[in-house]
Amino acid sequence: MNPAPPLYILRHGETEWNATGRLQGRFDSPLTIAGRAQAEAQRKILQANDLRGFSAISSPQGRAVETARIACAGLIGPIATDPALSEIGLGDWAGGVRADLIKSSGADDGFDLYELAPDGEGFAALNARCHSFLSRLTGPAVLITHGITSRMLRLILTGRQIHDLRDMAGGQGVVFYLENGKQKRLDLGA
């Protein structure tokens, strides 16, 4: 893969299903009040940076599009969508309650569910999808995506392997800046 352009990567704000412990995958749930506040915090973070020449690309899933509209308001427009930024597919477990699925599946934790989900996408397929997306980028961009997809994009951009995915930091209401294989977490406290 050619060197990637500078990127800001955002996870969508908290959703109603995040707050109740349900897995979304390709399903959708609206942002909570806290989720909209997290997107506004991301807008303030982005506003403090020079975004000249940057485009905005969002997952087409509603929670990401709503976050993109708030976070990029008055800063970048229009916002394109790309299905490659969608969340990892959870197959039969999409919409399930995380705690119940951990118990019934024998998974060690919620992270394992993304790899074990029947008819799910799995990490190797997500990695291939993210590699393909990154290879098509032609310039600096703000990417608005999802928890696991954000981690996979950043894992690839920092030259790490799939087995390191669990160690990639996450978070809502923050922004990750990536350039030249290095990642920096930006938040309002930094």
TrEMBL record:
The Gene Ontology terms for molecular function here are: phosphatase activity
State the taxonomy lineage.
Bacteria, Pseudomonadati, Pseudomonadota, Alphaproteobacteria, Rhodobacterales
Q: Detail which positions bind substrate.
A: 11-18, 63
* Protein name per Swiss-Prot or TrEMBL: Phosphoglycerate mutase
Q: Name one GO cellular component term.
A: cytoplasm
* UniProt source species: Sulfitobacter mediterraneus
Q: Which PANTHER family match?
A: ADENOSYLCOBALAMIN_ALPHA-RIBAZOLE PHOSPHATASE, BROAD-SPECIFICITY PHOSPHATASE YOR283W-RELATED
Q: Which InterPro entries match?
A: His_Pase_superF_clade-1, His_PPase_superfam, PG/BPGM_mutase_AS, PGM_Phosphatase
